[in-house]
Amino acid sequence: MKRLVLFPALILVLALFASGCEVLGDAFQKDPIGFIQSVGRVGQAAVGASKDITEEQEFYLGRTVSARLLAQYPLLQDAKLHKYVNLVGSSVAMVSDRPDLHYHFAVLNSEEVNAFAAPGGFIFITHGMILGM
Length: 133
Hints:
Blueprint: E1 2-4, H1 9-19, H2 21-30, H3 32-49, E2 52-54, H4 55-72, H5 79-94, E3 104-108, E4 115-118, E5 122-126, H6 127-131
Parallel strand pairs: 3-5
Antiparallel strand pairs: 1-2, 4-5
Helix pairs in contact: 2-3
């Protein structure tokens, strides 16, 4: 199954046009060929970013995002709490629009009130979020 992954490149381009039309006009007047080439590169990046990816690619993307997150916030060492979070998360996942996805739930050792979700079913909640409930 392929999933469409959308990136904000197109939104960024539209925002630049909306907020800086005069600046863009100046850039076009100074170097029209360079300006057109730049717009073309942004357009190609937007098209490339919106291509379908496989579930395997989604998993590896999520794993990479998760590794970076875990480098900043280590896992909380509390087996009972992890078991509880996995029980609740798995119950919610069963009634989601992707119940067959293998989800991964974890509690981060941070007092910040926050939660994170990465592609491929990687879901993290901070200890601070749990304490604030």
